[in-house]
What we know:
The chain is of the alpha/beta class.
Amino acid sequence: MIPDSATTTQDIEQRLLKIRDRPVVLEAKHLTRHFRTSQGGTAVALQDVSFQIHRREFVTVIGPSGCGKSTLVRLLAGLDEPTMGEILVDGKTVNGPGPDRGMVFQSYTLFPWLTVQKNVEFGLRMQGKGDNECRSQALQWLEMVGLESKADFYPHQLSGGMKQRVAIARALAARPRVLLMDEPFGALDPETRAQMQSYLLQIWQNINITIVFITHDLDEAVLLADRILVLGAADGVHPGGHLKQFMDVPLPYPHDVDVLRDPKFMAVRTHLDDLVHPRRELVRDRLPITRMVPLGDDV
Ligand SMILES: Nc1ncnc2c1ncn2[C@@H]1O[C@H](COP(=O)(O)OP(=O)(O)O)[C@@H](O)[C@H]1O
Ligand SMILES: [Mg+2]
């Protein structure tokens, strides 16, 4: 399914408004997660985070290090339980991991003893599908990520980008409602990363999937998303990670790498930068000039 393209400001606004009319797939209600610290105190990883994500939305989650991004995605995946609040998928409360949510992590998580094909088949076998069905479906998903020629390779024979494409194929093969991705391209070199972003946008445009994508890269957050969920770290008002803004990305659609050259891209990125790095003055802070040894002409 290829979505309609939107180019004028009015088109873009209309498209973003129409997304809100789609059914809610994923909902967080007053999500809070506290951890016990080794000193016996309480660390607030997330405090009272609520949001709704609609069908076929691409949402990126951004925020400074330690603001609770990984905690949030682990809660959404059902790998961790909230201290308070709840998560719903299609209106049903999440009580643990389930086939309705697929995960792709930053670290490579393929089974090293299985071929690429068998890695992708894994989730299908867990669903009790027969041999032939597993084989043909796995091949289709490998085709989708452009790796059918590598079906018989083992993970160690693949580049980092290829491993993540197999991880995406494996997660999608189980036909989840939501794909949860925690900094999936964080370990890749910039060129491979840009290629992976382009692949992911193409895959998303071809299938019916809602994506929640964690990143700490501002360009990546704007390039990929319909909407950006901005988390803030603890400050004078909030005891820990909290929702700062859930903002629209008013850029021509479908997004592709050309968006990076759009003047509107810079405007969105600057706004995001101010939200995520409000304390940039600290970086500009000058150290006192203290010379320990006299500087000669040779320095
Ligand atoms: N298992 C844990 N035990 C104790 N504290 C944790 C645990 N997991 C995360 N935290 C704390 O919760 C906060 C948010 O962590 P995390 O979700 O990993 O942030 P991010 O992914 O945004 O960098 C941090 O202060 C972190 O130290
Ligand atoms: Mg993290």
